[in-house]
Amino acid sequence: MNPIKILLMVATVCLGLNAKTMADSTKSKATQKNTVDKLKQSEITPANSVQSILAQSMQSPNALSPSSLSDRDTDLQEAVQADNIDENSILETFKSQKDSPNAMSLRDLLKGVDNNLSLQADDLLVRQASKDKTVAQLSFIPRVDVGYSFDQQNKGSLSYQTQAAQVTASVNIFNGFADINNVRGKEALLQKSVEDRKYLKESLYLQVIQQYYAYFTNLANETSLQQKLKQINEDIDRVSKLYGQGLSTIDDLESLKAQASLTEYDIQNAALSVEQSRLTIKYLTNKDMKGVYVEAIKDPIYKVEQRADIQSLMYQNQNLSFTNKQLNFYPTLDLSNTYTFNIQVPNYITPEQLANPIFGANFATNLNTLTLTLTYKLFDKIGLGIQKQSLMYSYLATQKQIDYKKLEQNKDVEFYRKSIEVARNQIISSRAGLESANISFENIKKKYDSNLITFADYLQALSTKYSAEATYVQSLNNYELQKANYIFYSGQDLEDYIK
Fold it and tell me: Per-residue confidence at 102, pLDDT binned at 50, 70, 90?
């Protein structure tokens, strides 16, 4: 055959491929523009935020089937069952976990926080504070003492014995309301310990949720890298055959092998991150992540409540106030009654002496003494005054901490509410980027298979595809995490928003 004709035929084929590629590129750009316009026009309301995004993305012509996150609700569950879902996708990987016999929800995982040793320690502190309050309340009960005395006297030739039994009841009538303020102070400490426990529990919930979504983000990254490695290995097999036939260079083959080794290295790092999150959750909850599937948190109500750590400081200040009131300059008034039964009187006392109303009264068989005591400590006011000043400084310092914590809470609430809005926009951007990356990769792969572009261009497109996939999954998890952050820092209970 004429060489000129062969060259003309090759040129014709190349021109045809280029024309097809340009047409595909034009079509992809138009699709991308329509997708972005559609995303910008769609409203993400708190009621259907992530769910609507995922449902819409699965119903689009260029659905993100292989790279979505997991079945977050019924709409997504239906989308997963669509024919265009790749059984090796990240979405399908997470879906299989929810369908497993040992499936465990986020609420089930949070129940394990009750087994946290730190929380159990706070439970004991609450019980201790409750007992301290009970002890303070018992101070109002009159004191009753029972005693017995035996006395042996030897004075020269005189020797005698005495025996007596006594019962003494005493009660404080007035001490400047110190007992009442003591009970109030112990009650404040009890409430403080309850708020401390509540804040610790909410903090543990937040840590679990953070590690929970970090686990699935890292798992998605690992899965994405494994899919990338699978694609590279398929290309290595194909290029190896071409190289054996003399249709490819050793550079392309070795570059693919090098990229496979680097991807394996990244997979190991991702697997280590997954293991770190798993172990952290096990440390916090004493539960393993086996069977746990990813799900969304309910959308928060935008309101601010008194956070438990702030409430704890307020109760601490109440205790300081009541302690200060216990230190007073009032006199104390005590009433006591002592009954004495003389079992044995000295043997030198004659019956006539016992019959004497004056002398014999000291040795009567039954003796009752009623005592009313008024005590005023003259020089204690100096020390008490200094103690009260010390407590007042402590009170004012705690009040400053309370005010600072409130400012911090307002800052955190404003920041995490903005973070939720940013996270929504990141979902839209990452989804659009993933659709573009998928379309771009398909076109570039066709060009690479036809030897129209270099290996470096193909490898960049491959990396961009799987990076965009992992980024999209991360944006979904980040959105849930920012909702949890807002709920925690606004003072609301995280458990109320767990499905």
Answer: low
